[in-house]
C-alpha cells in the first residue's frame, strides 16, 4: 500500500487579540529537535507527519503535531491556529535566512504580503516515470480538493468573498498553479531545469506546481489545499489523494491516456474552487462546466472509489464527504463564527481552541 504523509502550516497568534505574532523562531527553539520547520514568515510554523499507510495512524500523527506546536507556542505567549490566512490585519515578518531574503528581493510586494498556511499531501510512487504519469492524470481533479479544504475567507480584516483566498494569494507566485501535460519524466525534469535556468526561480524547490514530484522524497506532492480547521479533514484529503494517485497509476499501466484539458481551463476551475468552496458552483472535473459543489465532490469520489475500497478507506471517505457537505468547510465555519463571536478576534480564539482540541 502506498504511504502517505502530510505537512501542515499553522498560524501563530496572540491568544487575546487574535493578531498574528512573529514567534516562529522562538517556537522552534522551544521544540528543540522535535521536527518543527520554519516557513517564509515568522508568523507561521510547519510540522510534518511521518509516512504511514493507515489513515487512523495519520490522524494521530496530525493531532500529535498540532498539539506539539500548540504546547510550544504557549511557552512563548502565542497560540497555534489551523487557518490559512489571518482574519485580522497583519504586516508579516520575513523569516531569517538567505533563501527567504532572496525571495523577498525577487518578488517584492507579492512576497511581502505572502502569509498563507497550506496543507501538502505526499503519496509514495515507484519511480519518477510513474509519478509524472500520475501528475498528468490527476490535474483536473485538484480544484475539488481546494474547494473541500477552503479555510481562508478573511484577508486583512475583511471578508474576501472567497472561500480560499489563500489559493488566490499563493497563485500570484510565477511558478504556482496548474501545469501542462508533461508526458514523461524526462520532459518534466527538462521543464524544471528550464524554469530554474531562467533565473526567475532560485532552485527547483521553488517550482510551486499544484502537484509536483517532491525534491526530497520518492513521492507525488499535492499542494492545493488550505490548512484545515479540523484534523479529520486533512485525513479525508490524504485518503482521496492516495486514491487519486493509485487510480491514475492504474490507468497509466493500462495504457489509458490523460484528459487533455487545457491549462487555461484548469486555471478557471482553480479560481472557481477558491471563490466558491463548497457554497457555490464548481467546474466539473470532466466537463469543465459549472455544477453544484456536491456533484463535483461525488465525481471525485466516483473516480477513486475502487482504490478506496482496496485501501480500506471507503467508509472513512464516504462519512467524511457527507459530514463536510453537511457542516461545511473551514471557510463556512469561520463566517458562522464571526456572526456568533461578534468579531474576528473571537474567530481566531475559537479556531485556536479547536486546533488544540480544547473544548469550549
TrEMBL record:
<keyword id="KW-0067">ATP-binding</keyword>
<dbReference type="InterPro" id="IPR014746">
    <property type="entry name" value="Gln_synth/guanido_kin_cat_dom"/>
</dbReference>
<protein>
    <recommendedName>
        <fullName>Putative glutamate--cysteine ligase 2</fullName>
        <ecNumber>6.3.2.2</ecNumber>
    </recommendedName>
</protein>
<keyword id="KW-0547">Nucleotide-binding</keyword>
<keyword id="KW-0436">Ligase</keyword>
<comment type="function">
    <text>ATP-dependent carboxylate-amine ligase which exhibits weak glutamate--cysteine ligase activity.</text>
</comment>
<dbReference type="Pfam" id="PF04107">
    <property type="entry name" value="GCS2"/>
</dbReference>
<dbReference type="InterPro" id="IPR006336">
    <property type="entry name" value="GCS2"/>
</dbReference>
<comment type="similarity">
    <text>Belongs to the glutamate--cysteine ligase type 2 family. YbdK subfamily.</text>
</comment>
<dbReference type="InterPro" id="IPR011793">
    <property type="entry name" value="YbdK"/>
</dbReference>
<dbReference type="InterPro" id="IPR050141">
    <property type="entry name" value="GCL_type2/YbdK_subfam"/>
</dbReference>
<dbReference type="GO" id="GO:0004357">
    <property type="term" value="F:glutamate-cysteine ligase activity"/>
</dbReference>
Amino acid at each position: 500500500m502506498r504511504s502517505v504523509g502530510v505537512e501542515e502550516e499553522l498560524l501563530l497568534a496572540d491568544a487575546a487579540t487574535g493578531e498574528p505574532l512573529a514567534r516562529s523562531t522562538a517556537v522552534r527553539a522551544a521544540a528543540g529537535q522535535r521536527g518543527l520547520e520554519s516557513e517564509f514568515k515568522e508568523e507561521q510554523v510547519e510540522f510534518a507527519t511521518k509516512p504511514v499507510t493507515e489513515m487512523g495512524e495519520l490522524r494521530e500523527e496530525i493531532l500529535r503535531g498540532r498539539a506539539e506546536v500548540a504546547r510550544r507556542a504557549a511557552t512563548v505567549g502565542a497560540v497555534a491556529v489551523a487557518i490559512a490566512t489571518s482574519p485580522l490585519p497583519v504586516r508579516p515578518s520575513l523569516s531569517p535566512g538567505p533563501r527567504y531574503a532572496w525571495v523577498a528581493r525577487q518578488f517584492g510586494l507579492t512576497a511581502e504580503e505572502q502569509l498563507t498556511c497550506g496543507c501538502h499531501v505526499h503519496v509514495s510512487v515507484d519511480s519518477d516515470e510513474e509519478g509524472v504519469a500520475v501528475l498528468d492524470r490527476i490535474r483536473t481533479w485538484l480544484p475539488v480538493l481546494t474547494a473541500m479544504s477552503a479555510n481562508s475567507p478573511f484577508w486583512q480584516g475583511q471578508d474576501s468573498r472567497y472561500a480560499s483566498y489563500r489559493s488566490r494569494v499563493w497563485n500570484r507566485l510565477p511558478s504556482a498553479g496548474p501545469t501542462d501535460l508533461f508526458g514523461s519524466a524526462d520532459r518534466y525534469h527538462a521543464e524544471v531545469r528550464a524554469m530554474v535556468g531562467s533565473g526567475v526561480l532560485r532552485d527547483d524547490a521553488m517550482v510551486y506546481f499544484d502537484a509536483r514530484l517532491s525534491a526530497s522524497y520518492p513521492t507525488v506532492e499535492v499542494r492545493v489545499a488550505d490548512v484545515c480547521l479540523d484534523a479529520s479533514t486533512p485525513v479525508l484529503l490524504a485518503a482521496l489523494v492516495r486514491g487519486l494517485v493509485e487510480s491514475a497509476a492504474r490507468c497509466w499501466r493500462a495504457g489509458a491516456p490523460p484528459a487533455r484539458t487545457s491549462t487555461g481551463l484548469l486555471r478557471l476551475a482553480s479560481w472557481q474552487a477558491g471563490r466558491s468552496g463548497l457554497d457555490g458552483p464548481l467546474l466539473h472535473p470532466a466537463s469543465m462546466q459549472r455544477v453544484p459543489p456536491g456533484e463535483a465532490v461525488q465525481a471525485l469520489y466516483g473516480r477513486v472509489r475502487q482504490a478506496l475500497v482496496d485501501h480500506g478507506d471507503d467508509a472513512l471517505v464516504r462519512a467524511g464527504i457527507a459530514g463536510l457537505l453537511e457542516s461545511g468547510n473551514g471557510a463556512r465555519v469561520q463566517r458562522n463564527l464571526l456572526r456568533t463571536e461578534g468579531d474576528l478576534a473571537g474567530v481566531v480564539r475559537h479556531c485556536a481552541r479547536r486546533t488544540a482540541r480544547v473544548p469550549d
